[in-house]
UniProtKB/TrEMBL annotation:
<protein>
    <recommendedName>
        <fullName>SAGA-associated factor 29</fullName>
    </recommendedName>
</protein>
<dbReference type="Pfam" id="PF07039">
    <property type="entry name" value="SGF29_Tudor"/>
</dbReference>
<dbReference type="GO" id="GO:0000124">
    <property type="term" value="C:SAGA complex"/>
</dbReference>
<keyword id="KW-0539">Nucleus</keyword>
<dbReference type="InterPro" id="IPR010750">
    <property type="entry name" value="SGF29_tudor-like_dom"/>
</dbReference>
<keyword id="KW-0804">Transcription</keyword>
<dbReference type="GO" id="GO:0140672">
    <property type="term" value="C:ATAC complex"/>
</dbReference>
<dbReference type="InterPro" id="IPR037802">
    <property type="entry name" value="SGF29"/>
</dbReference>
<feature type="domain" description="SGF29 C-terminal">
    <location>
        <begin position="152"/>
        <end position="293"/>
    </location>
</feature>
<keyword id="KW-0805">Transcription regulation</keyword>
<dbReference type="InterPro" id="IPR047287">
    <property type="entry name" value="Tudor_SGF29_rpt2"/>
</dbReference>
<dbReference type="InterPro" id="IPR047288">
    <property type="entry name" value="Tudor_SGF29_rpt1"/>
</dbReference>
<keyword id="KW-0175">Coiled coil</keyword>
<dbReference type="GO" id="GO:0005634">
    <property type="term" value="C:nucleus"/>
</dbReference>
<dbReference type="GO" id="GO:0051302">
    <property type="term" value="P:regulation of cell division"/>
</dbReference>
<feature type="coiled-coil region">
    <location>
        <begin position="3"/>
        <end position="41"/>
    </location>
</feature>
Length: 293
């Protein structure tokens, strides 16, 4: 019943999203007429080579209208983004409920039966669809936006992806990509599944062994302070694996769709670092350890 209810709610939200997209287009068409008037007024002023009180008054009115139009369109777009976030949340809840009930889909098969290439594709899609933080003027990016860490009292939710420090078969410790199964408030410990071996081994870990992954991408053009800077030490997911390794930021993203370029620590190279490799914002987190000597 829960799955059916979620499907119904998602269908309703998709319909509301469709209506908001139509409203956005209508608002944009309406504002284009006013923007054209602004352009024509400036052209007439250049032709006459003068700025009369009439033109000043007219332009002030046109720009006031343009500002109101832009704010109205922005409001509709923010409502649409909220709908998208709500849909994604419901899809995630449905995925978790289905998994607990033992029901799997083609887009989320059991990890133990999933081909390596399929898992890598899913991780790439997760990085690409991570929402971009779009704040209001003067609004600071929230925790878990880009490089901004979670609050000290933050508890990751069931289904959230995290970097988890676990003991490997050989006894060494490593940071892996994991999914939160539960959190025990009495013991302050998480239960997590290795994203690469779901159902094979479950890890019980303290909070200090868990680093929540970003929930929003930071926009380099508006919020550069929410990104890791050049030469900063991080943990980054090594391409085509599900393990995090220490790395230095080589180049931060320049555009919202860009990845980080990082240099992984690698003793097989003369300078101790790999050539630059691209890693998505989704899979770069602060390193809790000190920089190597």
């Amino acid at each position: 019943m829960a799955l059916v209810s979620a499907d119904t709610k998602i269908a309703e939200l998709l319909n509301e999203l469709h209506q908001l997209i139509k409203q956005t287009q209508e608002e944009r068409s309406r504002s284009e007429h006013n923007l054209l008037n602004i352009q024509k007024t400036h052209e007439r002023m250049q032709t006459e080579n003068k700025t009369s009180p009439y033109y000043r008054t007219k332009l002030r009115g046109l720009y006031t209208t343009a500002k109101a139009d832009a704010e109205a369109e922005c409001s509709i777009l923010r409502r649409a983004l909220d709908k998208i976030a709500e849909i994604k949340s419901l899809l995630e809840e449905r995925r978790i409920a289905a998994r607990m009930a033992g029901v799997y889909s083609d887009t989320d098969p059991p990890r133990k039966t999933m081909r390596r290439g399929v898992l890598m594709t899913l991780l790439q899609q997760s990085a690409m669809t991570l929402p971009l933080w779009i704040g209001k003027p003067g609004e600071s990016p929230p925790p878990l936006c880009g490089a901004i860490p979670a609050n000290s009292d933050y508890v990751a939710k069931q289904g959230d992806k995290v970097a988890a420090r676990v003991k490997a078969v050989d006894g060494d410790e490593q940071w892996i990509l994991a999914e939160v199964v539960s959190y025990n408030h009495s013991t302050n410990k998480y239960e997590v599944d290795d994203i690469d071996e779901e159902g094979k081994e479950r890890h019980t870990l303290s909070r200090r062994r868990i680093i929540p992954l970003p929930q929003w991408k930071a926009n380099p053009e508006t919020d550069p302070e929410a990104l890791f800077s050049k030469d900063q030490l991080v943990l980054a997911l090594y391409p085509q694996t599900t393990c995090f390794y220490r790395a230095l930021i080589h180049t931060p993203p320049h555009r919202p769709q860009d990845d980080y370029s990082v240099l992984f620590e690698d003793t097989s190279y003369a300078d101790g670092y790999s050539p630059p490799l691209n890693v998505a914002q989704r899979y770069v987190v602060a390193c809790k350890e000190n920089k190597k000597k």
